[in-house]
């Protein structure tokens, strides 16, 4: 009997041990199963989180086209009612704004406003693109009757060029266009008055280029006296190097090479001063000494449109030297500024970002990126680098969604803005438009809807749309800059206006300036009737095989200018991003431009959503 107890306890022990082992085994596999299921749930959740981007109805697109039209019209009508003939509208107090005469050092205002009805001029081709023929014609007559440039105003050469000179040239070309694709914009008894105004303005800007030892223009000039502002000799790379498109157009329209010559000389001077190791340019340079005062190199403020105009000069004028310069610059930018995984569409590694670096070393210089860099996606689209454009745009979309608008500077390290205001800038909208045209993916229509809704929610006031003073609390400043009507509203309207001539036929026949003024790719603008022997840019283009029978004939950019090929960018001695416009098949329109997991990754990176434990 006593011998049974050990056996009994042994049996109980074995039973309990087996039970515990069974429970532990089941629990382990159950836990693994839950983990797997959690992963599946996360993946499904990501797909569900972004699946609404896959469809955008025609009725909603038409609705938002009209909302974009109404947005422009509300701002424009109030400018005309409360501000014209002054330069800008103060939309909160419903009054006009001109230069700050009492404070000449107030460059934020005086660089732009020169007592020449800036907002009216800057809005001309937006009226045309929207098909508002009667208002366009009325606006042109107002410009002809009221605008004069013999003003005692010291303005910035760059801003006057892109906002005013570019607008006048664009409107003039739209009026004389024999095709009249936006409606009959012709004006009875028009005698090239807008071209004459453009010529007059450019002539008043020329003293900024005179007697400069480096071939770089002084940043500011008085329109009446021709005196340059000697108190500041520093100019930005964009300010000195983004005048060539408008100045060259003017030269070829009026038959005077001097404007193209001085603008091209400035571009070449800057190009010669790039670092001979990195190939990078700085952001601020001394006009007299040629010394780099700002050695930060990036894609944002101070340098952005320099790269843009290298490529657009090639598209408009057909000079291979411009394309070579752009591609050389893009290789340097990619090698030294781009951080993150090599192939941006891979799900392993950090999402790509273009950072600010030291031009001499390529080392990281700041932990912020700015709002103007958002336009570089549009430049990448023009060059056919679609995948990279998609990835850069996705980063800015996440920043937009985090704050509802785009802060001027975003610190990607602390995931918060360094500079808090949003002055209704168009650069992110511009890239959204270009990516939609390149991919036809409804994702970008959703982005445009978010932009338009947020502008109406946060910035619409009694008489227009106001600058956001602080993106965190959406407090406002009483200013509506002219580019809101010229660029922001125009790109939003075109995004949703599928039937617009620019979207149906014009993509191969027009180019946007950096202020979004549309310029037709006319045969006349490709003809060089002079040879400026100091620059190879002015040699006749022997590669242009097409014969043009009429000076207003349009050039097909796909056939004659940009032959989009695989663009192989060297990143740390690796071949990566072999993409082109042709790499986005029609089937991709029914997919997200980035996978749901990658979109989720960018949202985490920016801080739109917090990481799961």
UniProtKB/TrEMBL annotation:
InterPro entries: 6hp_glycosidase-like_sf, EDEM1/2/3, Glyco_hydro_47, Seven-hairpin_glycosidases. The chain crosses the membrane at residues 7-30. Pfam families: Glyco_hydro_47. GO terms for biological process: carbohydrate metabolic process; endoplasmic reticulum mannose trimming. Ca(2+) binds at residue 514. It is a single-pass type II membrane protein. GO terms for cellular component: endoplasmic reticulum membrane; endoplasmic reticulum quality control compartment. The active site is at residues 159, 304, 408, 427. Its EC number is 3.2.1.-. GO terms for molecular function: calcium ion binding; mannosyl-oligosaccharide 1,2-alpha-mannosidase activity. Its cofactor is Ca(2+). Keywords: Calcium, Endoplasmic reticulum, Glycoprotein, Glycosidase, Hydrolase, Membrane, Metal-binding, Signal-anchor, Transmembrane, Transmembrane helix. The keyword Transcription does not apply. It is found in: Endoplasmic reticulum membrane. The keyword Membrane applies. Belongs to the glycosyl hydrolase 47 family. PANTHER family: ER DEGRADATION-ENHANCING ALPHA-MANNOSIDASE-LIKE PROTEIN 1 (PTHR45679:SF5), ER DEGRADATION-ENHANCING ALPHA-MANNOSIDASE-LIKE PROTEIN 2 (PTHR45679). Extracts misfolded glycoproteins, but not glycoproteins undergoing productive folding, from the calnexin cycle. It is directly involved in endoplasmic reticulum-associated degradation (ERAD) and targets misfolded glycoproteins for degradation in an N-glycan-independent manner, probably by forming a complex with SEL1L. It has low mannosidase activity, catalyzing mannose trimming from Man8GlcNAc2 to Man7GlcNAc2. This is alpha-1,2-Mannosidase.
């Amino acid at each position: 009997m006593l011998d049974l107890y050990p056996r009994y306890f042994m049996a109980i022990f074995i039973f309990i041990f087996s039970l515990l082992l069974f429970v532990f085994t089941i629990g382990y596999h159950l836990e693994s199963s839950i983990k797997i299921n959690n992963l599946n749930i996360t993946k499904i959740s990501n797909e569900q989180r972004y699946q609404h981007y896959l469809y955008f109805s025609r009725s909603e697109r038409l609705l938002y086209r009209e909302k974009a039209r109404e947005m422009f019209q509300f701002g424009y009508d109030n400018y005309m009612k409360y501000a014209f003939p002054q330069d800008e509208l103060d939309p909160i107090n419903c009054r006009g704004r001109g230069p700050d005469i009492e404070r000449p050092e107030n460059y934020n205002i005086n660089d732009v406003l020169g007592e020449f009805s800036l907002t009216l001029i800057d809005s001309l081709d937006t009226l045309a693109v929207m098909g508002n023929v009667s208002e366009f014609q009325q606006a042109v007559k107002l410009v002809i009757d009221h605008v004069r440039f013999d003003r005692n105003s010291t303005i910035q050469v760059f801003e006057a060029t892109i906002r005013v000179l570019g607008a006048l040239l664009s409107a003039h070309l739209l009026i004389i266009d024999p095709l009249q694709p936006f409606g009959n914009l012709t004006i009875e008894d028009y005698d090239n008055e807008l071209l004459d105004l453009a010529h007059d303005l450019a002539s008043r800007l020329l003293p900024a280029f005179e007697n400069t030892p480096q071939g770089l223009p002084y940043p500011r000039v008085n329109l009446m006296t021709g005196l340059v502002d000697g108190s500041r000799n520093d100019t930005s790379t964009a300010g000195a190097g983004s005048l060539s498109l408008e100045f060259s157009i003017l030269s070829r329209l009026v038959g005077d090479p001097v404007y193209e010559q001085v603008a091209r000389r400035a571009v070449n001077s800057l190009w010669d001063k790039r670092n001979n190791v990195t190939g990078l340019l700085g952001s601020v340079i001394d006009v007299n000494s040629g010394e780099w005062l700002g050695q930060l190199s990036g894609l944002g403020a101070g340098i952005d449109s320099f790269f843009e105009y290298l490529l657009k000069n090639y598209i408009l004028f057909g000079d291979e030297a411009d394309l070579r310069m752009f591609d050389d610059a893009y290789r340097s930018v990619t090698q030294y500024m781009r951080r993150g995984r090599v192939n941006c569409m891979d799900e392993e590694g950090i999402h790509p970002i273009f950072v600010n670096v030291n031009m001499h070393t390529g080392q990281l210089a700041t932990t912020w990126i700015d709002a103007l860099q958002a336009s570089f996606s549009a430049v990448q689209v023009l060059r056919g680098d679609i995948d990279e454009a998609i990835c850069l745009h996705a980063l800015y979309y996440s920043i937009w969604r985090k704050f509802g608008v785009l802060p001027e500077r975003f610190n990607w390290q602390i995931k918060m803005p360094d500079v808090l205001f949003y002055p209704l800038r168009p650069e992110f909208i511009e890239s959204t438009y270009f990516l939609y045209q390149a991919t036809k993916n409804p994702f970008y229509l959703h982005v445009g809807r978010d932009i338009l809704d947020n502008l109406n929610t946060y910035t619409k006031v009694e008489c227009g749309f106001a600058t956001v003073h602080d993106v965190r609390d959406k407090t406002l400043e009483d200013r509506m800059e002219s580019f809101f009507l010229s660029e922001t509203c125009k790109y939003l309207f075109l995004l949703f206006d599928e039937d617009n001539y620019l979207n149906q036929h014009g993509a191969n026949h027009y180019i946007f300036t950096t202020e979004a003024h549309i310029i037709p790719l006319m045969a006349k603008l490709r003809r060089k009737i002079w040879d400026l022997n100091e620059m190879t840019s002015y040699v006749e283009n022997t590669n242009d095989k097409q014969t043009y029978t009429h000076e207003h004939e349009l050039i097909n950019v796909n056939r004659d200018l940009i032959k989009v090929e695989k663009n192989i960018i060297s990143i740390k001695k690796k071949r990566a991003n072999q993409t082109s416009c042709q790499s986005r098949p029609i089937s991709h329109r029914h997919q997200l431009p980035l996978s749901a997991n990658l979109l989720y990754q960018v949202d985490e990176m920016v801080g739109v959503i917090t990481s799961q434990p």
